[in-house]
Amino acid sequence: MSTETRFSDYEKHYIVSCKGNVPVWDAAAKNPARYASRKPWLFEDRNMRILDFGCGWGDMLLTLWAAGYRNIEGIDMSPVLVEIANKAADGRARILCGDGLAHLKSNPAAYNIIIFAEVAEHFPPEAFREVLKLAHTALKPGGRVVIRTPNMGSLLASYPRYCDLTHVCGYTDSSLRYLLEQAGFANHRFVSGWEPDLHNWRPWRPLRNIEIGYFPNMILHRILYAIRGGNRPVTFKPTLEVYSEKPTGETK
């Protein structure tokens, strides 16, 4: 299947998979604590420049804006999704429609953080390695690349890996680490623990956003990997999330 065929009318699939939940920036403005990202890969400096590569209609950008980051940008190749994103953001973020690879090439040492959320699985490994090399060039020394993708070390990874015809590859923590090293990144850190969002906890919805399934999932995987023997993944979550750094001594 050609790339053009795989991505034909992709916006329709994206909208259905997101259940039509367009980011509500006005709600985030009224209650930023509820929407704010608290990821460990964020820097304290709210003025640092952040790029969301393949931003879709801007969910990640909204969480960054709610956390106080204002120098945020997104780029996506879909005119439909970018139009939706810009209308929803209403000028709160710079959201571009275009070739993300060309954008990385034309912005050397420009960013402090570049995010690839649900992007890696859309590229063959050798192609995504080249994308990461471009990201390496577009980052400032000490900058971070962030990747979120289905975790093929999890029993629950098959559905997110194969639910989308545009997904062509899956990664484990080991293969993703190897790819990052080939692209010149170092100091890889996986977000692998229990991450309850207590800011959204409410007594009338006691199980909301506290990841109640984390511990049963972890125990089950530990048992199965112990039976199997050998190495096991650093995390059993269905999604891998890793951030790595461009060494400070590098300028290119």
Summarize the structure in short.
It contains eleven helices and seven strands. With 252 residues, it is α/β, with parallel strands linked by helices. Strands 3-2-1-4-5-7-6 form a seven-stranded mixed β-sheet, with helices on both faces.
Task: Please provide a written account of the structure.
With 252 residues, the chain is of the alpha/beta class. It has one domain: 3-Layer(aba) Sandwich (Rossmann fold). The protein is built from eleven helices and seven strands. It is globular and about 55 Å long. Mean pLDDT is 88; it is low at 1-5.
Helix-and-strand structural type: alpha/beta
Described by the principal axes of the CA atoms, the overall outline is globular
Task: Count the E strands.
Answer: 7
Sheet with the most strands: spatial strand order: 3-2-1-4-5-7-6
CATH superfamily: Vaccinia Virus protein VP39
The overall pLDDT, averaged over residues, is: 88
**What are the secondary-structure elements, in order, as H or E?**
HHHHEHEHEHEHEHHEHE
- Specify the CATH class: Alpha Beta
Largest sheet, strands/sense/barrel = 7 strands, mixed
CATH fold-type name? Rossmann fold
